[in-house]
Amino acid sequence: VPEAPTPMWPDDLQNHTFLHTVYCQDGSPSVGLSEAYDEDQLFFFDFSQNTRVPRLPEFADWAQEQGDAPAILFDKEFCEWMIQQIGPKLDGKIPVSRGFPIAEVFTLKPLEFGKPNTLVCFVSNLFPPMLTVNWQHHSVPVEGFGPTFVSAVDGLSFQAFSYLDFTPEPSDIFSCIVTHEIDRYTAIAYWVPRNALPSLVPR
């Protein structure tokens, strides 16, 4: 009997991972949910509003799907119950892991002076996911930036994104200040303009 041919799948249909991660902890945030595709975060769940929040505008249409909201709330309550009932019994009996956050800052779009852009503060090597992110411009605190997006990655680690809309100028100096709340460790990443696109002057 001849063997059946081995199906040939396109590369884009293989080796992809979708992560739906619910976590809770004795810290801030006390509970979180993130969804990522190949470690590219799509959404986090705002439990105060019971709704998905897209990390990027192009994910907004998918965020409208709320059919699994009851299951998400069940997972939240179960996770919190585990922390309350089982957490104290494990205290001091298992090693406590810590990661020292690493921060870096880059622009979302190619740099062009005078054109609106977005600074991205990317935080890696984060565990547990207890952090605050603040921005400064010339050492002065900046207000008005959005929420910090936290997502899980392989190996029981987390990463985070913070976004700051701005219009770049040649003299800019921005800093992203990440504080790991569990041990007050602080990582700082600086951004100064480099490799700006040439300005196009109409003739």
Would you mind describing this structure in some detail?
It is a single chain. By secondary structure, the chain is mainly β. About 10% of the residues lie in helices and about 40% in strands. The chain is built from 3 helices and 12 strands; from the N terminus they run ββββαααββββββββ. The protein has helices at about 60-65, 70-85, 85-90, and strands at about 20-25, 30-35, 40-45, 50-55, 100-105, 115-125, 130-135, 140, 150-155, 155-165, 175-180, 185-190. Strands 1-2-3-4 form a 4-stranded antiparallel β-sheet. Strands 5-6-10-9 form a 4-stranded antiparallel β-sheet, with no helix packed on it. β11 (about 175-180) and β12 form a beta hairpin. The chain is globular, with a radius of gyration of 21 Å. About 20% of the residues are buried. The model is unreliable at about 1-10 (pLDDT under 50).
Uncertain ranges: 1-9
Total count of strands: 12
Measured as a percent range, the helix fraction is 10-25%
Strand content: 35-45%
Q: Helix/strand/pairing class, anyone? A: mainly beta
**How is the largest sheet built, in terms of strand order?**
1-2-3-4
Short description:
The chain has three helices and twelve strands, in the order ββββαααββββββββ. With 203 residues, it is mostly beta strands. It has a four-stranded antiparallel beta sheet. It has a four-stranded antiparallel beta sheet with strand order 5-6-10-9, with no helix packed on it. A four-stranded antiparallel beta sheet has the order 8-7-11-12, with no helix packed on it.
